[in-house]
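For the sake of transparency, this paper describes our internal protein records without simplification. The remainder of this section carries one protein's record, kept here as part of the documentation:
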Amino acid sequence: MKTLIIGTGAIGGVCAAILAKNNYDITVVCKYPELAIKIREQGLKVSGICGNINLKMNAVATIAELTDKYDLVLHATKATDMLPAAKELLPFLHENSKVVSLQNGICEAALAEIIGKDRMVGCVVGWGASMHAPGELEMTSGGEFVIGTLRGSSKEHLTEIQKMLSLIVPVEISEDIIASLYSKLIINSCITSLGAVCGLQLGQMLSRKKIRNLFIEIMREAMSVADAMNMKVPPYANKIDYYRFLKKPGFFGNFYRHLLIRIIGFKYRRLKSSMLQSLERGNKTEIDFLNGFIVENALESGIATPVNSKIVQMIKEVESGKRKIGLENFEEF
C-alpha cells in the first residue's frame, strides 16, 4: 500500500522507519522544513528494542506539498493538531483510502466527521517510544496495536492493515474499538494528567497516598461513565481489569488497590508525563481527549465527575498561565 505517515514524533517516526525497512512505500509529513531535509538527506534514525535503523525516505514539511493520493494514512500528530491536518489531507485520499488514528485519547468520532466513517480506523497504541532529538528516536518498550472500525463500518481491510502493522508489534483486531480506546484512556487519564498537575515523575507521584486516592477516583468516575454508556471496558493491555480493581470492598480491597498502584509507580518510576512535557514546551495538551472525554460523556449521562472535572480545569489553567504546576495543586481536592 502507498502509505503516508503524518507526524514523525516518537510513535510516527518509529512506524515509518520499521515499515520503510520492510520495503513499504513510505512518505512522511514532519512539520518542519529542516527536519524534512534531514530525513531525505541523512535518514530517520531509530534505536531501541527494534534494533538500529537509519533510512532515508521521502519527507515533506507540510501536507500541502504532497502530490499523490494514498491508500493508507497513519495519522500520528498530537490530538490538538489532528483535525486541521485531517482537513488538509482530504485532497490526497481516494474513495477507498484508510486513515488510522494513532492519537492519545478518543478522537475517532471527530476525525470520522472530516474524513468519512468508512475511511476511519481506530487504533490503541500499546507500546512506547521516545524522541531524543528531531529525527532521532528510540523504541523503548514492546506491546501491541489494537485496531478496529467504528460500528457499522466494513472490516474487510483490517486484515491487510493488521499484517502491515504486525511488522512493528503484534496487532489485535477489536470488535469494539471505542471500548478498547477507552480502556487506555482511563489509565492515561490517571497517569499523564496527574503528572501534568504536579510535575513529578511517576514513581515520586504514586508514592503519595493522596495522589493514589485521586488515581482511584479518576478510574471510578470513568467506569461509572462507561456503565452509563453501556460500554464493556476490556482489561488494559490484558493486565489491568478495572472491574476487578474497583470491586474489592473494605480494608483489604483498598490495600490491594494502593499496592497495585505502588507497583506501577515503581516499575515505571522514571516515566515523565507526556502532557507535562507538552506544558513545559508551552504547547496545548490533549486533556479534552482524555479526562475531558470522561467529563463530556458524564454530562450527557447526568453523572457527576468532580475529580476529572477539577483535573480538566487545572490543566486548562496551567495552559493559560493562571496556575503553576506543583504538588500544592492537590491541596484543592
Summary: The mean pLDDT is 94. The longest helix spans residues 177-198. The chain is about 45% helix and 20% strand.
